[in-house]
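Worked Example 4.2. Consider the chain below.
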Amino acid sequence: MKNPIVLALDIDDPNQALALAQQLGPKVGAIKIGPRLTFRMNPEKLRDLTSQSLVFFDHKFFDIPSTVESSVQAAFDLGVHWVTVHALNGRECLERLALLEKKLKKSRPEFRILVVTVLTSFSTETLPPIWKEISILESVSELVKQAYESGLTSFVCSPHEIQAVKSAVKGEAFIVTPGVRLSSGSSHDQKRTATPHEAMALGANALVIGRPILEAPSPDQCIDEILGAL
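Applying the procedure from the previous section yields the following structure tokens:
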């Protein structure tokens, strides 16, 4: 990555997304797309996007092992560079994914399978009932530990859990943090947030930033200001 900013194109219009990617892609390290956009974008346009930028395909695959493996392979075949899966898939699935990642990296070295732990939209009060027995930090730590022991080393977590992730692994980990907000902006539906500078200081490798950039009067200038602050 040329810089740690991952621009989240969480929008519905494929033409608008491609225009923004063309305008802002050269300024950021990667572009993130999720279901609300990919289900509206034909495969050829998606391949055009992946040929221009490092693309983070954020679908958080969670299913039986064979289905998750096939989904990751399908995303790879579209040309994407990072793919998310959920840590709750369990050890068998995660171990199989680690082998798949190793295989796919041979032809696309920058390819990563990113393991999602606890979504940044959750707070202690809104956690699913089954998780309320332990804290968010404990949940993240246990999920990361199992994924790391399975062979995966890239994780998605809120800025609040970066240190917990680092403590749960025995070596290097690549950490992507959503929930990054500018100090003057709204947190929207994110509950566990931090500024770009705070997240990087805690040890994040990449920062997912969407609405603070896209809703700025000048998105280009906003990116320049974030990079300047870092």
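Residues 91-105 form the longest helix (15 residues). The CA atoms of residues 15 and 131 lie 40 Å apart. Compare this with Example 4.1 before moving on.
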